Amino acid sequence: MATSVSVAAAPTATGWSCEVKLESEGQALSEHTVEVTRSDLARYAPDSPVEDLIRRSFEFLLDREPPRSILRRFALSDIERYFPEYPRVIRP
Description:
globular, 4 helices, 4-stranded mixed beta sheet
C-alpha cells in the first residue's frame, strides 16, 4: 500500500514552514509541520526545491517507520539525530 506525500511550503524569515500530509488510498494517515532553514536546503539538496527535499525526506522516513510514528512537528535537521545516515542518503 503506497503512501502519498503532499507538501505545501510557506516562506518564513529563516527559510520555510512546510505542511505535509500523508495519505494512503485516499485516506488521511497523518499531518506534519517541518521547519526548513535556508542552510538546511543548501546542505541537503542545494539544487532542489524545498518541496522536493521534504517529499524525499518523508519517503526516507517512511522506509524506516510508520506514518503515525513520525513526529507531528520538527525541524528538518532533527532527522539526522535519529538517523545518522540521512545526509548521505538524501543528497541528490
